[in-house]
Amino acid sequence: MLNYYNRLSAKVYDMDKYIGRSFGDVEYYCERLSDCKGVILEPGVGTGRMLIPLLEQGLQVEGFDLSTEMLDICRKNCEQRGLVPNLFTGKMEDFSLKKEYEAIIVPTGTFLLLHQREKSIQALKNFYHHLADGGKLFIDIFLQTDLTIGEVSTKTWELDDGDIITLETKIVEVDYINQYTISHHRYEKWRNGELILTELERFPLRWYGIEEFKMLLERIGFGDIILSADYQFGECPTDPKQMVTFEARAHKK
Length: 253
Prior knowledge:
Elements: H1 7-16, H2 25-32, E1 39-43, H3 51-56, E2 60-65, H4 68-79, E3 87-89, E4 101-106, H5 117-130, E5 131-141, E6 152-158, E7 164-175, E8 180-191, E9 194-206, H6 210-220, E10 222-229, E11 244-250
Parallel strand pairs: 1-2, 1-4, 2-3, 4-5
Antiparallel strand pairs: 5-11, 6-7, 7-8, 8-9, 10-11
């Protein structure tokens, strides 16, 4: 089994999705969470691209990630800004804490990395369990519009020291029944034309229908569900390429 977000891929993520870069999501989450008085949890916190702006806004935010490489970068990014949040290693489907949160956020499609249906449902139940009564869950999902097996795309990044990192991506499996794809990401680091490091990453992505995901949230116990397309609050999606944010409240009493 190949892991994802190891040394090279975590480095590329930090370069490509650097702190301060927004796709409209940073402003959206800062506004939607601005009146949050309790603690917020971000599963899949990554390198802190969303966490840090929320902390700098004065919000109380904790985060966890499965990748220790991503967490190391996140801690460094926080330290550079004088921030010391609670960060820990964990999985969405089985983290267990003796506390409840006012909000849980999973932006930018990170939730789709749980490609196995059972684990994704368990993660949603886990989120519900860790929310206070009336607490809110925010999850971004997107539809997969390219299911072409074998087609290769390549990206390149140049580091400050002149080294080059390349990324070759191709879909190697599409499971239409269980609604997920598996891609292989091949990272290579080059120095003066010589390959010095390489990683092969198995990258799964699940897809959901919009109504399917809404009904799944309702079945778990969430209510007051609001959909927002491309971080425009309350605007229903009209294009399959739009990011869709689900905002749902946990009703426990």
